Amino acid sequence: MSSFFNTPIEFLKGVGPQKAALLNKELNIFTYADLLQHYPYRYEDRTKFYSIKELNEHMPNVQVKGQIIGRELVGQGRKQRLVIHLSDGTGSVELVWFQGIKWISPKLKSGVTYVVFGQPNRFGSKYTMAHPEIEVLTPALQSNHFLQPVYSTTETLRKKFLDSKAIFNLQKTLLKEAYNRIPETLPQSILQQYAFLTKKDAVAQVHVPRDAQVLQKARFRMKFEEFFFMQLRLLMQKKIRLEKFRGQVLAKTDLLTEFYRLHLPFELTEAQKKVTREIFVDFKSGKQMNRLLQGDVGSGKTIVAFIASLIAIDSGAQVALMAPTQILAGQHYEGLKEFADKIGVSIALLTGSSKTKARRKIHENLLSGELQILVGTHALLEDVVQFKNLGLAIVDEQHRYGVAQRARLWKKNETFIPHVLIMTATPIPRTLSMSVYGDLDISTIDELPKGRKEIKTLHQYDANRLKLNGFIKTEVAKGRQVYIVYPLIEESEKLDLKDLMDGYESVQRAFPEFPISIVHGKMKADAKDFEMARFVKGETKIMVATTVIEVGVNVPNASVMIIENAERFGLAQLHQLRGRVGRGAEQSYCVLVTSYKLSKEAKVRVDTMVRTTDGFEIAQVDMQLRGPGDMMGTQQSGQMDLILGDLREDEPILSISRQAAQKIIQEDPELGHEGNQPIKLQIENQKKKSVNWSRIS
């Protein structure tokens, strides 16, 4: 059966070697299966003929029929156009061609009834259609009312007569042969429960829909199936991981109790306590933990990670914390060292700029077990970094790492696979977390520490510069500090933006009385650290920077974030930047400065930031604007093999498909029941993935 679908496309009637080579190159269509899965991206309504008097300019493409009552060539040379007057007795419409006039003109004859398909546009009292589809009315066309599928194609294919209509004709040819060979991939129990069309009917109706209702049912079934097998794969991976990979039992809490009693500087929020309990349950289970900890900027993920580290250390294990940048690794190290010193836990920092002597000492102390927490960048992944007993690997902002990189950290303990805690301050919309991290356990810190005031976000236009400068002076006079962030480092001829140096000079002119720092990505690390340190100590009052401070130093006294050309930043970036302020007890502000000219998307981004500080709501809007693939980066989006399904629009279908997959796994984990054989076959037929995503989180 599968050999039929693997047949090279050149053997389909109407294709041949030359067209096959074009389909291979332009659309990645190599086999019958590839063509069958090249689904329409929209449909044109051919179910109705409109009379010309019914036309209005708000209609999409419509179908009319009529006869030619006149023609004229208007203009000269390149500006020449062919105008055909078509009437159906209720009125007339002008059909206009600007190109291909010599080819189309001789084909159009008076006294013949034509079917015309195009978009009506109004000029004065007349309606026109530019470059419409036109063909002679036949009995078949008269009775053939259907939704016309529209397929993506390319300019190269169109030139070789492989436009959308030609692809549709190939699909019809293929469906005649393929229809009865399309195997059912879902069990009868699911087909009955959701009143689904059979697989062969669903495929046929997606390509040649009888009407809008049947098309909707067909697409629903096909989307459900895509999500169902994605969820099944993730849930099976999770099940295998829990069964196969033992985790070190980390259950001692004496150190933690001492920390709670003597050194915890503040009361944990209920959300932090809940997450800590979830981690502790995993540690005691004897199974390897694979947990994603998501929480907004400033929600207190790091202290939860430290508490988890204390349980691991008390139980005789070591901890690695990996961060994507030297600045962030340094911040984690400084923050945790304060606690670690109080409780007598040894901690070290390892980055690319660590000196050889310090590295040697770290390597020795790791192997002897004397060093209990190692914080660092991807320098932690080097083969020379060997632990005595790595029990917990904490990865911060994990979307910045490749899968293979994380896998190397995973292999640092040969006896037990380390428990993995992934932290992210970029909240992930539910649909995305179910699809990409469906095999991970997800913990969420959804409340801010007590005493934090919500950051006030304002939108200011460039023209109100004096008012903005007055506001900055007032805040600095109160003893506060200010970030001013620019999107570029150097002038770009293409983008009309203030570059950083120009901005820095403007700020110096506007505030001659205040000491000012500058930080950007092209500075050497030590110069950057020096400037950061001055700002942290309060020696400078204003920090002019690029987005290098997006994940950066915690400065509780910095209470104002000015983002210049805010329309140039993505939502996630704006949210991360805003999170640099609001760390202290004072009221903090984020001011988004833009020009008056804003694109529709930029306006949505700015309005969203002003309206809410809820990272999950912001992430949802971000996904609607950018799409799931862009949010995840190619590393993860590559595993979302979705053709029809759309994570932005199809959350209800994803939810029911996950429930159905969970039920199957609970009732028949080995897929041994006869009724589940279609699922088993489909899983075996699906391309084997070379990477096991669950094992490398």
UniProtKB/TrEMBL annotation:
Keyword match Isomerase: yes
Domain (Helicase C-terminal) ranges: 467-629
One BP annotation, GO: DNA repair
Protein's UniProt keywords contain Transferase: no
GO molecular function: 3'-5' DNA helicase activity; ATP binding; DNA binding; hydrolase activity
All residue ranges annotated as the Helicase ATP-binding domain in the record: 282-445
SUPFAM superfamilies, alphabetized: Nucleic acid-binding proteins (SSF50249), P-loop containing nucleoside triphosphate hydrolases (SSF52540)
One Pfam family matching this protein: RecG_dom3_C
Swiss-Prot/TrEMBL keywords: ATP-binding, DNA damage, DNA recombination, DNA repair, DNA-binding, Helicase, Hydrolase, Isomerase, Nucleotide-binding
Gene3D superfamilies to which the protein is assigned, alphabetical: Nucleic acid-binding proteins (2.40.50.140), P-loop containing nucleotide triphosphate hydrolases (3.40.50.300)
Reactions mediated catalytically: Couples ATP hydrolysis with the unwinding of duplex DNA by translocating in the 3'-5' direction; ATP + H2O = ADP + phosphate + H(+)
Record-listed E.C. numbers: 5.6.2.4
Primary enzyme class: isomerase
InterPro entries hit by this protein: ATP-dep_DNA_helicase_RecG, DEAD/DEAH_box_helicase_dom, Helicase_ATP-bd, Helicase_C-like, NA-bd_OB-fold, P-loop_NTPase, RecG/Mfd, RecG_dom3_C
Annotated CDD domains: DEXHc_RecG (cd17992), RecG_wedge_OBF (cd04488)
Function description: Plays a critical role in recombination and DNA repair. Helps process Holliday junction intermediates to mature products by catalyzing branch migration. Has replication fork regression activity, unwinds stalled or blocked replication forks to make a HJ that can be resolved. Has a DNA unwinding activity characteristic of a DNA helicase with 3'-5' polarity.
NCBIfam families named in the record: PRK10917.1-3, PRK10917.2-2, recG
Family the UniProt entry places it in: Belongs to the helicase family. RecG subfamily.
Protein name: ATP-dependent DNA helicase RecG
Protein source organism: Marivirga aurantiaca
Taxonomic path: Bacteria, Pseudomonadati, Bacteroidota, Cytophagia, Cytophagales
